[in-house]
Sequence to fold (154 residues):
Amino acid sequence: METLLTIFGIFVGAFITLFVQLYDQKVKFRLVAIEKRLSAHQEAFSQWYKLVWVIHTPAGDRIKVTNEVRNFWINNCLFLEKNTRKEFDIVIKLVDGYSLKLQIAKNEKDPHKKEELRQDYLNDWKRIFDLPNYIQSEVELKPIVPNIKISAEG
Fold:
């Protein structure tokens, strides 16, 4: 009977040790994942700044930056939270086509169509500048208000 209790004690001890090790590994994995997600969101914020600064630049410069930012998105999208991932992808496309939309609106002769086009690019502008709100809210940091001195119309 004593031998049976000893064997049972060994099994219980081994089970507890195994359980603690598995739990510890799971906690470490979660911490690494959280750190990687926070890092990806921080980098997304940095990449957003790059996009903002090329909105009104020549196409060659803008395409180069949007391609770099798109590569960041491709390599990190799974680490970004759902809304940030979706909005970031949309913002890349909006920045890519923003200059053309602005030019078309400026060249439009019909005042009603011109106003419609103006509202369209202003809506895009707002969406571009809303991206930091998604990033910050999904990592639960207090909002940072960007201090950028450029306008929607160049």
Observations:
- Residues 41-138 form one domain.
- The chain has a mean pLDDT of 86.
